[in-house]
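Ex. 9. Protein: Lipoprotein.
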Amino acid sequence: MNNPKKYLFNSLAIALLITAVSCVTSDHEDMAPTAKSIPSEEISGMMGLMEEVDLMVMSAMQQNLSQQRLVPLLDELSCPGTIITRDDKKGEIKIDFGNGCVSNRGMEKQGNLTIYYSGGFLSKGSQLTIDFENFSLNGHQMQGQRKLENLGYDPIKKSLRFSSVMTDFKLVNLEGQAFNLNQNYIRDLEISTDSDGFRIYLQGSGSLSTENYITAKFEIVRPLKYMQECIESGIADPIEGSLEISSGTEYSTILNFESEGCSSI
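Predicted structure tokens for Lipoprotein:
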């Protein structure tokens, strides 16, 4: 497989925050925040936090590539005092945010991430495993593992596909409520050209549950599309796509993301 042009790594360094604001409409009434359901805002917030983790991992990998080292478009490892160490023999990268720092995008990070990798990052079948140690992001505590795998590069579409899987991942929100998060995503990243920025299409599903066995399921029913121009202008929402959130059979909502260009509605 030929290595994609340098714009590829610009495509990797993006913030995939999924939030139910601005350019979002709903086909149904939002799930009522009762004791028997998890609010959709909690779900979208958790999803956004985990996408930020993937962003940090991608940034760490591209900063440490020995033969294809490229400066990321959005440097998510710019927290003052952050220490990054790499051991190629063990195939691991350690990121230490110490007692806490705030990135140039306003993300507060604390604790440690360890990335275990196999093969060349751009090679089909290469895998990353992220371990969390006393780690928190914007005050949300995280514990568990997240796995990424390169599913291959399509030279015709100029698109790189990654899977992202997480099972029984532990999160604690700002109010101290604990959750278990499961996710299974596929990302298609169309790399930048001389005339157009990158495009990314996200699809997949997952679930979020509490210690009281209350569970909400979410599924991307229409791929979420993100544009480089929008992200650079500070708009993190997708410009297209639909996200369905359900809690049992009683509550269900579909969040539709529609926007003309990068302007918020």
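Check your answer against this statement. The two ends are 41 Å apart (CA to CA).
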